[in-house]
């Protein structure tokens, strides 16, 4: 990949110009709002009602032409980038983001001085881009994205986005095995039993069929798995939906809860975040 030009700091027109330059270098791009967040889904796509557009080829059943769906909206098509819906988004944008995996790249996001020191000792030199708090180390090759692979280190590649902060310096190296190994998750420890109170009257499940419960768990897993932004909120709402339907009838088991926690952790949530979200959902429902 040749080096696109840096962003000029003179408003949304320069952001669009930078996006078009990146797209010309086959790097899929999208606008970011304040707080480094992607544009929210439009009314037709809220909560992925459209069926989503989050598969690896960026061509799901959704045919929305707006910059919806976070990383999956990233595109190299200049006609889309300059379309009316995207122009409106660029006018409100604060930054340009790109989908590293879609460009065949992996970004090792180093968030502090300790993380940078670790990278210099442990990883081969590559192109480096300074960030607000640390550095992005960019490698040739795509892989699974993963947050918090070690203190202060995230991996952004497939199904993720990174903020474009300029071309950086140095020669881009091939993705090393040491980075790939960081994303390999160790087996999760056995979780403590999470008791779900049974209703008064013996705790018989009022649904009377395991298919109803299985469908609810599967839908919650899918909702978590397919989210591409606001993971914390999505996990909490999925837990809340399951508990709303099944939290009082005694049909939930530890195995069901473990499935929901596993789906959340696969999106980067920590066990503590899962436990907190579950406890908050129970508290909201008075369980």
Question: Major sheet, described briefly?
Answer: 6 strands, mixed
- Total strand segments: 10
Euclidean distance between termini CA atoms: 54 Å
Structural class: alpha+beta
Q: Residue-averaged pLDDT, rounded? A: 81
Low-confidence stretches: 187-203
Q: Helical proportion?
A: 25-40%
- Alpha plus pi helix count: 9
Succession of helices and strands: HEEHHEEHEEEEEEHHHHH
Principal-axes geometry comes out as globular
Please compute the radius of gyration using only Cα atoms: 21 Å
Report the portion of residues in β strands: 5-15%
Topology of helices and strands:
Layout: H1 12-24, E1 29-33, E2 37-38, H2 78-81, H3 84-92, E3 95-98, E4 105-110, H4 113-122, E5 127-130, E6 135-140, E7 146-150, E8 153-156, E9 162-163, E10 173-174, H5 177-182, H6 210-226, H7 231-246, H8 254-266, H9 271-285
Parallel strand pairs: 6-10
Antiparallel strand pairs: 1-2, 1-3, 3-9, 4-6, 4-8, 5-6, 7-8
What does it look like?
This protein has 287 residues and is α+β, with helices and mostly antiparallel strands. Helices cover 36% and strands 14% of the residues. The strands form two sheets. Strands 4, 5, 6, 7, 8 and 10 form a six-stranded mixed β-sheet that branches. A hairpin with a 4-residue loop joins β5 (127-130) and β6. α1 packs across α3 (84-92), α6 runs antiparallel to α7 and α7 (231-246) crosses α9 (271-285). It starts with 11 loop residues before the first helix and ends with a helix.
């Amino acid at each position: 990949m040749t080096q696109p030009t840096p962003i000029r700091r003179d408003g949304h027109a320069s952001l669009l110009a930078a996006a078009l330059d990146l797209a010309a270098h086959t790097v899929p791009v999208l606008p970011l709002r304040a707080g480094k967040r992607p544009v929210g889904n439009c009314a037709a796509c809220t909560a992925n009602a459209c069926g989503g557009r989050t598969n690896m080829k960026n061509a799901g059943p959704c045919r929305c032409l707006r910059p919806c769906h976070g990383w999956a909206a990233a595109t190299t098509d200049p006609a889309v980038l300059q379309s009316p819906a995207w122009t409106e988004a660029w006018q409100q944008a604060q930054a340009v983001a790109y989908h590293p995996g879609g460009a065949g790249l992996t970004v090792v996001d180093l968030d502090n001085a300790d993380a940078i020191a670790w990278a210099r000792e442990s990883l081969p030199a590559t192109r480096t881009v300074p960030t607000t708090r640390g550095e992005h180390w960019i490698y040739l090759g795509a892989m699974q994205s993963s947050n918090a692979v070690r203190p202060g280190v995230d991996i952004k590649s497939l199904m993720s986005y990174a903020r474009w902060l300029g071309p950086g310096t140095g020669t881009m190296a091939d993705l090393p095995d040491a980075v790939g190994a960081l994303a390999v998750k160790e087996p999760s420890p056995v979780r403590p039993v999470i008791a779900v109170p049974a209703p008064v009257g013996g705790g018989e499940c009022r649904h009377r069929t395991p298919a109803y419960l299985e469908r609810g768990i599967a839908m919650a897993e899918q909702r978590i798995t397919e989210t591409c932004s606001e993971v914390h909120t999505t996990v909490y709402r999925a837990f809340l939906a399951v508990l709303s339907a099944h939290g009082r009838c005694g049909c939930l088991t530890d195995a069901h809860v473990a499935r929901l926690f596993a789906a959340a952790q696969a999106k980067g949530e920590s066990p503590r975040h899962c436990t907190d979200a579950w406890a908050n959902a129970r508290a909201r429902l008075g369980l």
